[in-house]
């Protein structure tokens, strides 16, 4: 009996944003292990190149491209570079995000609000639009949005971040409905508490971490690698009839 090929990504071109560390890096490494040529992207090219080089050293196919998804011109330039270099894009993982403000919602200033919206909503939206156009030209593809459980149950002191992640969940459904006719699927991953630098304000603060763990049946934060398997499912042929889904990977927190 042959092993399944449902998770095989040989010949696929995948762009992972925010891939220089944390969940994005874990996703990039797993997709490369499964045969995809992964484009590691984040704001700083040196950080991207370091991850890309280590993936290549491990036998994977990888390249690096700097892109700040809060900058519209950089989004357009990145997709055009992919079009020029590869001629197609099979997989987009929208993972880059920002959360510059941690505090009571009434204390949110305009700068923090605008930065969070520009990256987490506008960035995801137009990266999906530009990538989706390239996918449409080539007969389809898969878009994966990294949202958050905060998009369903707002995180304390994380008001505007939670609001943007709720928007990402609905955005996922919009693209799923309107792009299915082009062979493009769009799904979302909703991570729970994960031990990353991004979440260090939560994970490294015992006064916040201890009550948070009491709400998680598995009683621990996730490792970033524990998010990657669900992403692999959602961007591979294993989920060929799945679109518009938002899958919680939260240790049972929302169960």
Quick structural overview:
The protein has eight helices and seven strands, in the order E-H-E-H-E-H-E-H-E-H-E-H-H-H-E.
Explained architecture:
The protein has 255 residues and is of the alpha/beta class. Helices cover 44% and strands 15% of the residues. The chain contains 8 helices and 7 strands. The protein has helices spanning 22-33, 45-57, 72-86, 110-137, 159-179, 200-203, 206-214, 225-235, and strands at residues 13-17, 37-42, 61-66, 91-94, 141-146, 184-191, 246-249. A 7-stranded parallel beta sheet has the order 3-2-1-4-5-6-7, with helices on both faces. 45% of the residues are buried.
Termini separation (Å)? 36 Å
Number of H/I helices = 8
* Global structural class: alpha/beta
| Average pLDDT rating | 95
General shape? globular
- How much of the polypeptide forms β-strand, as a percent range? 15-25%
- Major pleated sheet: 7 strands, parallel
Work out the radius of gyration.
17 Å
Q: Strand tally, please?
A: 7
**Low-pLDDT runs:** none
Strand arrangement in the largest pleated sheet: 3-2-1-4-5-6-7
Helix/strand order, N-terminal first: EHEHEHEHEHEHHHE
Helix content: 40-55%
């Amino acid at each position: 009996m042959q092993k399944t090929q449902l998770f095989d990504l040989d010949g696929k071109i995948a762009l992972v944003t925010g891939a220089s560390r944390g969940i994005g890096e874990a996703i990039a490494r797993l997709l490369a292990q499964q045969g995809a040529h992964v484009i590691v992207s984040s704001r700083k090219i040196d950080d991207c190149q370091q991850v890309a080089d280590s993936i290549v050293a491990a036998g994977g196919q990888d390249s690096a491209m700097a892109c700040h998804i809060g900058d519209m011109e950089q989004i357009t330039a990145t997709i055009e570079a992919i079009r020029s270099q590869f001629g197609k894009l099979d997989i987009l993982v929208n993972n880059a995000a920002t959360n510059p403000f941690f505090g009571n919602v009434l204390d949110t200033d305009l700068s923090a609000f605008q930065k969070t919206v520009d990256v987490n909503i506008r960035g995801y939206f137009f990266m999906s639009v530009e990538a989706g156009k390239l996918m449409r030209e080539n007969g389809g593809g898969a878009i994966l949005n990294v949202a958050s459980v905060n998009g369903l149950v707002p995180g304390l002191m994380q008001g505007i971040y939670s609001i943007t992640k709720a928007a990402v969940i609905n955005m996922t459904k919009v693209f799923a409905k309107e792009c299915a006719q082009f062979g493009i699927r769009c799904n979302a991953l909703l991570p729970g508490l994960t031990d990353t630098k991004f979440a260090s304000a939560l994970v490294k603060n015992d006064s916040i971490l201890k009550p948070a763990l009491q709400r998680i049946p598995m009683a621990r934060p996730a490792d970033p690698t524990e998010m990657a398997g669900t992403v692999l499912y959602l961007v591979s042929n294993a989920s060929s009839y799945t679109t518009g889904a938002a899958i919680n990977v939260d240790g049972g927190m929302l169960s």
